[in-house]
Write a structure and sequence with these properties.
Chain lengths: ~425, ~180
């Protein structure tokens, strides 16, 4: 192959790996230093970075299985890139969430329900909290660690099966693999849905374990698909300008991705609003505190920084992409679709911040007995560095996979339909 | 000339193959025709472009309907809960954008659906009980195994003999004059 071939960019995988390793080393160093000084904010950077890419790749895993089950004619050309990317899904959990959960210092810093001596805003210790005791059949450390290991196992197994038989079809050219992948996906969709729900419960909802929302898993699913589609649009745009999708990606592919982005933007808003709306209507203190600390200061009643973040989510993460994507031309003009994809990507990071960072921290001198973790801190840069770090690992694996496998599923029964896809 | 045209709806011609009717449509489009149509037994992908059809204007009425619905929902809930009979429910304000939101978006969806449904009736000029094409003896075959291009007399380019020759040059099979 000459160096100017579409696959020349796979040679850059080592650079991505180097960036990823260096960035993650820095993030883990700060997280370690923070935990030594009883500051958990830097450890949350690891969680945010790991969960961001876990969400992207879980979204791609679900899209891979959904397009398999529905025999989507447009999908094979784009799906191969998802199949190459989801190799990173178990890895981002393994180098992010798994060490956080299995190393006691980090576990206590991130999930304070695991730290019996942690002081709650009420002044009581977690170990004597009747709410935790009532939930301890689920929220106990050994079951928690088993669940974390299961997330790696289930996602790793699904990703491996979906990749293995799809790649096998490139060489042995049998249609049987398509039927086999159908079956894997039919089982994998409900299995993946339960796993991602529990992952969202354990990694995010349990950060403030007094609070509960049955819609949380669906919210995480909606966010995952939105982020997966945004990354897909950005990646396919790059790959169609000098990569292996050059001359293959057409207007109809952009249109279908744009339509899906619109649909899941509405779905995300529907789920996020419904969660808020039910809690607002019921007005029960054990639920409303979660939104209250994200809106105003408990002592003064004045809006806090998180109120601005909430408004950004409503206008920047819903209305802006929603109103833009309503227009047909936004979905077919490559530059416009790319701009919306970046808006969704940024909004997804803000949504993770909104869900992961604000917590009540015991402060004896504060009027209400607690302060809320602030939004604007230098740790935001560490969060972004963590996202870059995990992203480096994900794309190093992606490019390495692309160098070894076909980047177009040449013997997929629907590949011609996919390449010639039209509106 | 004009007197004769008033009694003529247009000229129809049939094709036997998809590729024939597709390329013929492209030539009619390139000749600058405005009032003409293609009839096929099944949808032909790419025919919109081959005919040079613009995108449907229906989504504009959908958007208009949606915006109208949202405003109607706002006015409805504000008038009833906050103006005509102010009522405190569950400690919530008389009116805010949050508690009536299900009403607001349901109204948005309902009116957007009205806009779409009635919009397609308007732009398709429906309901319509009869059409001169239905009198054509072989018109039923365009829902079976024949394709048809119809050039209408109301197009400024229409001239009976020239249009007939034009269709012949496109490779049409049976050419029929349709009378009103």
């Amino acid at each position: 192959m000459s160096t100017s071939s579409p696959h020349a960019l796979t040679a850059h995988w080592k650079k991505f790996l180097a960036v990823g390793v260096v960035a993650l080393a820095v993030v883990w160093y700060f997280a370690f230093a923070g935990v030594q000084h009883h500051d958990n904010r830097q450890a949350l950077s690891v969680l945010v970075g790991s969960l961001f890419w876990a969400a992207v790749l879980i979204g791609m895993l679900m899209l891979t299985m959904i397009t398999r089950v529905f025999d989507a004619g447009w999908a094979p050309l784009i799906r191969r890139n998802w199949e190459l990317l989801i190799a990173g899904l178990p890895v981002v959990i393994l180098v992010g969430i798994v060490p956080l959960a299995f190393l006691p210092d980090f576990r206590h810093a991130v999930w304070y329900w695991t730290d019996g001596s942690h002081v709650l805003p009420s002044g009581h210790e977690v170990g004597h909290d009747p709410i935790l005791i009532a939930k301890s059949w689920f929220l106990n450390e050994s079951f928690f660690l088993v669940r974390i290991a299961l997330y790696v196992g289930v996602f790793g197994l699904l990703a491996a099966l979906l990749r293995r038989w799809s790649f096998a079809q490139d060489t042995d050219r049998t249609a049987g693999h398509t039927h086999r992948l159908h079956a894997v996906s039919a089982v994998g969709i409900p299995l993946g849905a339960v796993t991602l729900t529990m992952l969202a419960f354990d990694c995010l909802m349990a950060l403030s374990y007094h609070w509960f929302s049955t819609m949380y898993g669906v919210w995480f699913f909606a966010l995952s698909i939105r982020l997966a589609l945004a990354v897909t649009v950005i990646l396919t745009y790059k790959l169609s300008n000098g990569g292996w999708l050059d001359g293959l990606l057409n207007q109809a592919h952009r249109h279908v991705l744009g339509c899906l982005m619109l649909a899941f933007t509405v779905f995300w808003a529907y789920i996020s609003f419904s969660q808020y709306f039910l809690i607002y209507t019921a007005n029960i203190p054990e639920e409303t505190f979660w939104y209250n600390i994200r809106e105003f200061d408990a002592a003064t009643g004045l809006k806090n920084e998180w109120w601005g973040v909430s408004m950004y989510l409503i206008f920047g993460f819903f209305f802006l992409p929603f109103l833009s994507l309503l227009f047909y031309r936004t979905k077919i003009v490559a530059g416009r679709l790319l701009a919306v994809a970046w808006i969704i990507l940024v909004g997804g990071i803000v949504d993770l911040w909104f869900n992961a960072i604000p917590r009540q921290v015991y402060e004896k001198s504060a009027p209400e007995g607690f302060v809320v973790t602030p939004f604007l801190t230098s740790s935001l840069f560490l969060d972004l560095l963590a996202i870059v770090g995990f992203g480096g690992i994900v794309f190093a694996l992606f490019l390495r996979g692309a160098a070894r496998q076909e980047t177009i599923p040449v013997h997929d029964p629907r590949i011609l339909e996919s390449i010639n896809y039209h509106e | 000339m004009n007197e004769r045209n008033e009694r003529i709806h247009g000229v129809a011609c049939t094709f036997r193959k998809v590729s024939d009717v597709f390329h013929a449509a492209e030539k009619v489009r390139d000749a600058g025709w405005k009032n003409w149509d293609v009839h096929t037994p099944f949808p032909i992908h790419g025919m919109d472009q081959a005919m040079g059809l613009p995108r449907s204007p229906v989504p504009r009425l959908t958007l208009l309907g949606g915006v109208t619905g949202f405003i109607t929902g706002c006015l409805l809930t504000w008038y009833m809960n906050s103006y005509d009979y102010p009522l405190i429910v569950g400690g919530k304000p008389y009116w805010s954008v949050i508690f009536p939101f299900p009403v607001l978006y349901e109204c948005t969806i309902l009116f957007a659906a009205f806009g779409t449904f009635f919009g397609q009736f308007i732009f398709n000029r429906l309901p319509r009980h009869n059409h001169p094409l239905f009198e054509l003896p072989n018109f039923a075959r365009v829902s079976d195994d024949t394709f048809m291009i119809v050039l209408e007399a109301r197009d400024p380019q229409f001239h009976l003999d020239e249009s007939r020759n034009f269709l012949q040059s496109l490779g049409g099979q049976e050419i029929t004059v349709i009378r009103d």
